[in-house]
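User: Hello! I'm new to structural biology and keep hearing that structure can be predicted from sequence alone. Could you demonstrate with Ninjurin a? Please show me the input and the output so I can see what each looks like.

Assistant: Of course. The first part below is the input, the amino acid sequence of Ninjurin a. The second part is the output, the predicted structure written as tokens.
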Amino acid sequence: MSELINAELSSFVQKKSFAQNMMDIALLSANTNQLRYVIDLGNKHPYYTTSLLLIIVSLVMQVVVGLSMLYVNRQVQYNMKSRSEMKAASHMNNLSVAGVFMVTLVNVFISTFNGAGVAPTTTLPDTGSAGLNVSNPSSEIALP
């Protein structure tokens, strides 16, 4: 009976870890996109330094939390033999949950300082005149 319970617990922990890791990857991807956006804007971003710092802190925290989750998953999967090991794994799991909460909190602040309304300046490639008369809006494109 206890082997069945351990197998079910192990299966649950594996599925939970997989789901958490997929969420971590999505958040990591979003943060790297935000980092690119802030770097593209540079000093034109109204909260450049604040946003840059918060995004870097979030990325570092995500890596640390991800590594702790891998450690917890490995401990639960292979080393659950005594009560003290279960207690240590539970403690580590609680720390990783606290880490996820902190990452979420930092990302709320990132969203607050996202610089909405500021668009990156991009230049369009020069296509030449291409037969378009810009001064006369009713003109059509001349075909060669």
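User: So the tokens describe the shape?

Assistant: Right, they're a compact way of writing down the 3D structure. Reading them back into a model, for example: Helices lie at 2-41, 48-78, 83-112.
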